[in-house]
Design goal:
The complex is a heterodimer of chains A (638) and B (246).
Chain A (H helix, E strand, L loop, with lengths): L1 H4 L5 H7 L16 H4 L5 H24 L4 H21 L5 H22 L7 H16 L17 H13 L3 H28 L2 H11 L14 H22 L5 H15 L3 H20 L7 H21 L3 H21 L19 H29 L3 H16 L9 H6 L1 H19 L8 H21 L23 H14 L4 E3 L2 H9 L4 E2 L2 H4 L3 H6 L5 H10 L3 E5 L28 H5 L7 E6 L3 E6 L7
Helix pairs in contact in A: 4-5, 4-6, 5-6, 5-10, 5-20, 6-9, 6-10, 7-8, 7-22, 8-9, 9-10, 9-11, 10-19, 11-12, 11-13, 12-14, 13-14, 13-17, 16-17, 16-19, 16-20, 17-19, 21-22
Chain B lengths: L1 H12 L6 H12 L1 H10 L7 H24 L7 H25 L14 H26 L6 E8 L7 E8 L4 E9 L2 E11 L4 E6 L10 E8 L2 E12 L4
Helix pairs in contact in B: 1-2, 1-5, 3-4, 3-5, 4-5
The chains are: A mainly alpha (638), B alpha+beta (246).
Amino acid sequence: MKDILAHPRLHWLELWLFPPPLAAPAHGDLPYDESENQKWGWAPAISFAGAVCLLVVAWGFNGARRDDPYHELIFWLGILTFYALIVWRLISPLASRRERVVLVLLAGIGLYMVKVMHSPLYFTFYDELLHYRTAANILETGFHFREHPLLPVSPLYPGLENIAIALVNLSGLNIYYAGIITILVARAVFVLVLFLFFEKTSESPRLAGIATVIYAANPHFIFFDAQFSYESLALVFVVMVFLGIQYRMTHHKDKPLGSSLLIIFGICATLVTHHVTSYFLLICLTLWAVVAYFFPYEGQSRTMLFGTAVLALVAILSWMMYVAIITIDYLVPVLSGAVFDLFKVLVRDETGRQLFSAQGENALRLWERVIVYSTALSILLGLMLGAIVIWREYRNRPTYLFLCIIGLLYPITQLLRFTEKGPEIASRIGPFMFFGIAFVLAVSVAKLYPAAGVSWARWRHVALTAVIVLMFWGNFLVSFPRWALMPGPYRSAADTRSVEVQGLAATEWIRDYLGPEHRLAADRINGLLQVAYGRQYQVTGSWNNINVPGVFLDVPFTEVEYRTLCEGQAEYLIVDYRFNSHLPLLGFYYEDAESELPYTEPLETAVLDKFRARDEFSLVYDGGDLVIYQVDLSNCDR
Amino acid sequence: MILVTAVLMLLTLLEWELSAVRVLFAVALVGILPGYALTTAIFVKYPLGFAEKLAFSCGLSLGLAAVGGLLLHFTPWGLQPASWVIYLGGITVVANALALGRMQQTTQVDLSVIHVPLRLHQLLLMLLAGIVIMGAYLTARAGAENRPAPQFTQLWLLWADESQSEVQLGIQNQENGIRQYRLVLSTRQGQAQEWPNIALAPGETWQTTFPPPPAVGETDFIKATLYRLEAPQEIYREVYLRRIAR
């Protein structure tokens, strides 16, 4: 390449592409001054203003619960102002290091509070309820690896539940509060460790602060990775490993004990906490080692990175093979299906999925779509600029290049959004890709606004703050279906919006009067509640390989449906009469793909009533909208 | 530090009643102390800043608890309060002793107190911020508790035992005021029993157990019908029970 560029006519291109890298990073920080960096600056004032913004968010949520007008406006006002205040100060070259540390902590904890205020009484998100069951099993028996009816891999990765159970055991709190505290501590550690990792990499508290707050703009930061769910915790350990490596390579070369233990400990904690995150860690370590091999930095050990990658490989593979072998069955169909779909779209064997094709309450409004498209465009432009800057100025630093590659993979992975099975994967890898994206975008920001004294400084400051807030907004809009972003009145088959008092009362009733561990068939939400809070066993098509939707939806009820119940050994059925007045917001009431065509009308009452006329059922519970039938399985052998 | 940990371990083992102090101690033992002790021990030759110390202390503590739960699983006691106290407290004490030992071997120990130049108005603003955030949480909580929710009454009818020799019948009022009900028990042969006025306060439960009416054979059923006295002709809830062949 360089030989070609050596041609006299291409000399300018060589100069542009291969200028000498900078000897030391320059990201617009103030000259280092210990006393200046100890100052609190605007952090207390912004903390107070941010707290008021969170109060506004709480009012917005309460308005949403009552379905008040303007609740959405109030909510956006609160959350966007909160984020904008922090971004504004972190972009400023004048903030001290201490101020930046406080502000990233404020961003992490404040945005976590948004999730807590969304569900302040009990867990309502789907994954949280799954993990609640795992924790309840451990709490009941004092031991691990008890069967989970809906997420069999969860007991095999009990890192999160271990911490929650330790808190329950020692404090006397219930699992909900222990879970909230666990994730709160994890979130605070996460933003702090991420800040330190970016800081050690860039030698710039300013860039670290900007990168951390941009990371908080990733679609999963507010809800998905704030859930009581294994990924929320595992991400902390991944960044601890990254930070340990960075220490080991640069600051602690002579005394590597501490950083080495941090790396080993982080790998062990990740592999017992979450499968996908541990695989991501392995991929990152390998990529980092390869980059460091081809672009070595003076004095940095290349073998250390390969050694770490090998250690992670052995540990993760061992865990998977000897403890969690079913993870393969769990993940491979999803991944292979998405890749196969993508291949079909790329070779034009299949037309791609149309973006924003959702209808009704799932559809984004025009202004929301504009924000989402602007977000995508801003990220792409920022990535391009940041990648160019990194290549020209910092290509002698392997960690910069490693993060840049991770960031640049993001647009490619988003092609999965055009497939039928891929959108969820494209969405789920966002938090991992954002480690790179956040860093590269922060490099762009520091390049565009390098110091306080540059021309148009104020405008640069305003414009960059606006763009980052726009990215936060756009990503938040697509993080969950729009009806899930805020609490509100009951909706059918709408996960967090479907968890309410009638379902909880039925759950409590079954647990108290029938006892735990009964096999029952139910819709998605009532089944989940029974599994989590009622400690029952829900029979499903996914895990029991029976046609559960057919039992509820096929009319009339025949011997075929009865045989299905026999196969699943379902002792009880739960029927939700709200399905005759509400459409399923997720597109299905019972299980994915239960209906060939999208529902345009709620279920007919006759469909829900069909069990009443049958001798195989006793109606043992009537709670109004929810009724429970006991199934007479004594004729299964006939 | 060792003394504090020992006191915490003792207090936790005594299982004193739930209180804010106990919760704080538990959070300290799970989320801070073991990691802090370990950080002090392993980074003794390399002074860390406050942010680093905080991050490593909490991060390592979380990691120790995450991995430690598995270790406890393989003990005969499993994950119990006592085993957690011994595990987490033990690590804290041992790591502290190790840190003390390593400190004596090095001349580079940083024992300086963290300097926090916070002015009064800044301190007040931070305190106010904390109070407002707590207020925001309580506001959201109050909103969730008082959100418009459906009023409903639960009615149930169950075999009270495996031999189906007794029936359990119950009502629970989940509405926001006192409700009066009439409950009728019937079979194919007609009405078997009636409770003309059952008054229940919000959250109150009424239940009874009785032998099934003699006419209830293999093919018959018992039916309980609930009426509200304010709408006596309108069936409010209805349940029925058949015999199950065992």
